[in-house]
Specification:
One of its GO terms (cellular component) is plasma membrane. By secondary structure, the chain is an all-alpha fold. About 85% of the residues lie in helices and about 0% in strands. It has one domain. The protein is elongated and about 65 Å long.
């Protein structure tokens, strides 16, 4: 994995958890809006919308650079629209990056099967 691909995956990974948190907070704010006088939906909606747009941009960049299959790219996109899906995406992306680092080190050291 080259540096630009690793950077694209890292950016997507770093925005995954905040996007998931903002989604969950937006859901809480929506319930509070309906049940109390508290209305933070416009603020949380804007925050979540901005993070979602960043996620989609970083997702498209990572898909392009990492040459993911349609199934893999689709999975990461579906995770972005599910509540708490970003946490699963972050975990999977971290594992993918760690595996790539291990494979790169093995290739540099000339280990067979890498």
């Amino acid at each position: 994995m080259d540096l630009k691909t690793a950077t694209a995956i890292r950016r997507l990974r770093l925005v995954s958890a905040p996007e998931a948190i903002s989604f969950l907070l937006l859901l809480v704010c929506s319930v509070l809006k309906r049940t109390t006088d508290f209305n933070a939906v416009p603020v949380m909606g804007a925050v979540h919308g901005g993070l979602f747009v960043l996620y989609v941009i970083f997702w498209a960049d990572a898909w392009n650079r990492a040459k993911w299959s349609l199934k893999t790219a689709g999975l990461y996109f579906v995770l972005s629209v599910l509540p708490a899906g970003g946490f699963f995406a972050e975990r999977m992306l971290r594992r993918e990056a760690e595996d790539a680092v291990i494979a790169t080190r093995a290739r540099k050291e000339g280990v067979a099967g890498a």
